[in-house]
Amino acid sequence: MSYLPDLTTCCKGVDNMFHLIRLKIRDFRGFADAQELNFNQPVVLLCGENHRGKSSTLNAVEWCLFGENCVGKKTGIRERIGWEISNRYVSGEGVLVEVEFKGPEGNYVITRELSGIGRRASEIITVKLPDGVELHGDDAERQIYTLFHSSFQNFMTTVYQHQEAIRAILTQEPRDRNDAIDRLLGLSEYRELVRGITDAKIGNIYRAMKSEFDGFRQRAEQSIRIYDKEAREKKEKAIAEGMGEEDITEEEALHRAKDIGEAVISLAKELGINDLQITMPQSFVGVAQFRDEAKDKIDTVWLHSPDMVKQTTLEKKQRELASLVGRYQDVKKAGTEAQTERDKFIQQHGDETTLVEADKAQQKEITRIEEEIYKSNARASLVREAIQYLKEVASDIERRRCPLCGTQAPQLLNQLESEWEEKIEVAVRALEVQRKEQKVKLKQLKSFKDQLEELEKALVTARSSFEECITKVAVALQREIGEHDDPLALLNTQLHDIASELESEQKAIEKKGEKRIAIFDQLAKLRTIDEILSLERKKEIVERIWSTKEYKELDKLRDQASQFMEDVQAIKGSLAIASREEAEAKISAAGTSLDKHFCRIANHPTIGGLVMEVTEDPRTGLNFYNIKSRDGLDPTPILSQGDLNCLALSLFFGLAEAAEETQPFAFLMLDDPSQSLGPEMEQRFVSVLEDIAERRQLIISTPYVGFKNLLMASITKNKDVYDFLDWTEKNGPQIARNA
Amino acid sequence: MGYNEKVLNKIAIMEQRAKERKALWHTISDSFGKEGPEGVANELAVEMDEFREKSDVLLARLNDML
Question: In chain A, what are the domains?
Answer without folding.
Answer: 1-159+663-739 (3.40.50.300), 223-304+489-544 (no CATH), 311-485 (1.10.287)
